[in-house]
Design goal:
By secondary structure, the chain is mostly helical. The chain has 2 domains: 3-86, Rna Polymerase Sigma Factor, Chain: A (Orthogonal Bundle); 94-195, Arc Repressor Mutant, subunit A (Orthogonal Bundle), CATH 1.10.10. The protein has 9 helices and no strands.
Length: 203
Amino acid sequence: MSEAEIVKRAQAGDFEAFTELVNAHKDKLYAFVRKLTGDPDDTNDIVQDTFLKAIDKIDQFRGEASFGTWLTSIALNQARALFAKRKQGEMKPIEAYLPVGATNGEHPLAEASLFDWEDPLANLERAEIGRLIEEGLETIPFAYREAFLLRYVEEMSVKEVAATIGQTVAATKSRILRARLALRDFLSKRFEAKYGEKVRRIH
């Protein structure tokens, strides 16, 4: 049975069908929200609330996107509400993520913090890289983090990310760029501290 048929059964009130949908998506949704929040308790709350809202709003699902994307949108709204309450830091201008001297011509924007990922990654265990990336994501303002995760973890196109977060394509590209710069700058500093030398930059 296709997912579309299972969704129709769930919309008709078949709770077993909804449970089947939950089981099909819960692991991926949990992994996404865990990266988004950086906290297991927040993740559990958001995922639980997401599925509760999905039960209430299942009739509103029109199949214009995949069911998984629809769940992700609900989870994003839940996470946004949580972070809004905590008043996470303001979104910063792009210059705030550039290394010292980047605004005076020393380091053109095209080179700013964009080191070659392959060399340092080859020198570290995958588990450590994953831990460092998750740690770095926690330092990025929520609005940038959600755009980055949707683009590179959920593998959405920029257009799909823009539609999901309710922003223009241009604004979405800007958020993704800021997230990449911030994350790469974070990783670059951590690699420098670990190896005692600057990570090679691309030219």
